[in-house]
Amino acid sequence: MHLPSYAHDMIRAAVLSGVPTARQVGGLECRLCGRPFGPDLAAVPLGPAPASGLFGCRPCLTRLVTRARRARDAALAQDAERARAESAAWLPMREHHLARLNRVREAAEAVAAVAGDEETAALRIAWLLISLESANTWIPEAPEPPPSADPGDTELRDEAFRLDLAMVTARETVARRLAYHLVNEAQPQEPELCGELECADDCSGRHDSSHIDCGPDAVFDDLAEHGVTVEPPGPGPLSPRLAALLAKDTAEETSPPLPDIEGHARAVLAHLGITADDTDALVDAAAVGLVVDAWREGPLDEIREATGGPSDGEVFAQSVDLYRRARAALTAARDGGPESLLTFVRVASDADLPWAGGSRFALRMAPQEWVAGLARQVDDRTWFTGEVMREQGWHAALLHRAASAAFKALHHFGMPGWPGAVGTAMERIAARDRSGAPASLTDLDAVEAALLEAPDRLGVDALDWVCRQALFGGAP
Fold this sequence. Notes:
- The protein is mainly alpha-helical.
- It has helices spanning 8-16, 22-25, 58-115, 122-137, 155-186, 192-197, 218-224, 240-251, 261-271, 279-296, 299-305, 312-336, 342-348, 368-392, 394-408, 418-431, 444-453, 460-468; strands spanning 43-49, 52-57.
- It has a two-stranded antiparallel sheet with strand order 1-2.
- Strand 1 and strand 2 (52-57) form a beta hairpin.
- It is elongated, with a radius of gyration of 41 Å.
């Protein structure tokens, strides 16, 4: 006789109740009803073994199986009814909580969008954030699902995570706007910041995140002024190839990277009108050479030709900005050593940094294999300058890059030939029809001053027009 699993507990409870008699232990009587086994009443073994233990008769076991089945069916019906009741109570709570999460998330996304609008007043943005934080705080704890709920349902947790991300974005956007608002409001009538940024004469003294860039390491110095010490991350790891070269250089004696650089470079620079003993002029030329060698050549040409690549005016403006950064890095390297050049490397290869002159272009918009190639070239050629500096001194490294600039970019911004190139360009622009030119090119005296001091101040649109007119014989 087959005894279904759902009846085992009921049969076991009946068999084990009370103390069995000797005849029941000997398998002569039914343990459940006490009737003797015989030709009309067969014994069904109940264990622990088929031939030993206790035995029951078929009618008793059939009755217990029927009772157990009825109890099981009643329990299933009760469980189903309980699950229906729990679901009826749970689903409205779940949907209401999801609706709260979704509405506050949509509000956070809207606050981020409004905060990013330069036309929105800073005070209104601050109040928006406060009301958003209140709405987020008032969201109750997620309701606890009943045992009958689907354990694979993660929608509540997923929506809460999406809300957290939206809140982070809103807070970051508002913080950025308010930070620059406070900086602008705190500026005096003649703000020193404008001088540092080389702003135009008619600058209002108001700046946003596209104007102010403190570099990657300034925050550590600023925190130190408040008594908080955070160690800068330091230079990144060398590429495997450069590490192997460095290991080889330290393992065996090698000759200097550029033997006789002092003599040869001095002669070249003197022939092209650059005095090697004039430190300021030498740093200027070396900065131009570092930008041209590390950034302007090679992969940048492919990036410019790609769909959505930077225009000539954008490259012009970014070259000027990188020249300043290269000059600052080379100057810092005089006392800080070759590691100071890493600041230039980080900025020149930063894929997320918007370019100068009000450009909307950033390297992340270009094909990534070309961006990776540009980053490698910037790293490699700047590293070589650092090696020359380490082996032969700061002055030798400047001579090397200055000689390169004298050959490749004699009339670029920062070089001695730049004022002459600007003079020629101004003669040409005065003779051109400027009816379709940007408004910033109307005042020729201001244009000439900007070209001489900070060409990226004219903006990308004006520099694009200048490049299209070939006023310099090509983009500087």
